[in-house]
Recover the amino acids of this structure.
DNA sequence: ATTACTAAACATCGAGTAA
DNA sequence: TTTACTCGATGTTTAGTAA
């Protein structure tokens, strides 16, 4: 079976858009060339090749051609469209991060326990996190890079606030699963005190205890992505 | 702005299918080559070009690469997919036939008045046609060809039957509009007594009279297509 | 105006091969 | 094993031009 050439995709798309699915539509090669951003000569060749491969039919009317797409040509385009569409929808919609547990300096724990934050946690993620964040060191570049994208993704946003002394930045939360079993949230801080290779997790309970983790324990965090 | 090259479409599709939308996925050029039915060298070049144009990011891990699609690359694919999809759905879904009125030999009128047919007309197209079909001569090849496709399309099917003398073939009906105003049906006969350039129309009333048509009057018939 | 040929430029591919 | 270079073969585009 003759396969549709990649460079003919645009040409066929253009023909379909002009209504050539069911009717012979008059179309000049120079017009077609412009619409596919190629020369008149290329358009002419495309049409000849498409005809030869049975994807279109042409009828000459004086010096002009009218073109109609065959059912073979149409079904080829439908096939292509559905391959594209399904691959766009079927990707595993989560980000996986792998790293090891490291001990934080207690800073995260302190900040996350502030009333200004806990009130919002209660209403937005439905629990007040265990006081103490889990710091995970990402060793591989690909995970460090992957973690960065959460800065631009939309998560549950905990607003910043200020007291008499200073202002506290916003916190973004992304629901995830630790080691395929424990619910947690990846938190992204507006002003982080870590370098990019360390991420912070919060959860309802003291994961370190309940999951019997120690420093350097290997961790996998999987965070679902919507959209 | 750098445009996505057509030959890279398959490569990007493959990467998306492998989950490279949100994560860096390890993929070798020889594997990728196989999946896009090109050589290892071509796959390698594709990746280099895609990276250069900002459609993917790569991270080297030992001798292997991990690849992730950038949001630019992803949106390019979404754009392409939606262009394809919308052009597949938006074509004008009708066939237009142009021709002139010719006088038939009264044959069609006779057959269509047979009880075996009229009973079915009543129940399947909700009226008994005026006794007398309208014959339209198609002069241009494109319309003759276009009319042919109704032989393979699905319409309302009036079953054939037989009496003591002979058998009568099936009739397929396609609802249409004559000269943008008059309801009619294009009928396709299993055994036609015309050459391909003549089509037959039936309708509730005597169109020849009500629309004041005479032989050689120019006619345009538009028939909606479903699917 | 058309379509389409030729010929040369340009892009893409893949075998061989280096690192 | 990798990735990616060179380079010759093949495919694609286009300017010029014929019909």
């Amino acid at each position: 079976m003759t396969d549709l050439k990649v460079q003919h995709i645009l040409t066929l798309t253009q023909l379909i858009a002009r209504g050539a699915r069911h009717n012979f539509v008059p179309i000049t090669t120079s017009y077609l060339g412009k619409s596919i951003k190629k020369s008149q000569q290329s358009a002419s060749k495309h049409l000849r090749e498409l005809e030869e491969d049975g994807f279109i039919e042409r009828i000459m009317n004086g010096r002009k051609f009218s073109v109609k797409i065959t059912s073979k040509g149409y079904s080829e385009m439908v096939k292509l469209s559905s391959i594209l569409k399904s691959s766009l929808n079927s990707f595993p919609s989560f980000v996986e991060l792998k790293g090891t547990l490291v001990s934080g300096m207690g800073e995260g724990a302190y900040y996350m326990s502030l009333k200004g934050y806990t009130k919002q946690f209660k209403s937005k993620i439905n629990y007040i996190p265990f006081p103490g964040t889990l710091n995970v060191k990402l060793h591989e570049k690909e995970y460090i890079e992957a973690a960065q994208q959460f800065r631009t993704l939309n998560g549950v946003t905990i607003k910043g606030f200020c007291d008499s002394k200073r202002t506290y930045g916003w916190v973004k939360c992304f629901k995830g699963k630790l080691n395929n079993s424990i619910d947690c949230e990846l938190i992204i801080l507006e002003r982080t005190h870590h370098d990019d290779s360390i991420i912070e997790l919060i959860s309802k309970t003291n994961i370190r205890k309940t999951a019997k983790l120690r420093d350097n324990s290997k961790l996998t965090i999987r965070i679902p992505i919507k959209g």
Notes: The first strand of chain B starts at residue 25 and ends at 26. Chain B touches chain A at residues 6-7, 9-10, 13, 16-17, 19-24, 57, 59, 61, 66, 68, 77-78, 80-81, 83-85, 87-88, 90-96, 140-143, 145-146, 149, 225 (CB under 8 Å). Residues 28-30, 40-41, 44-45, 47-48, 60, 62-65 of chain B lie near DNA strand D (CB under 10 Å from a C1').
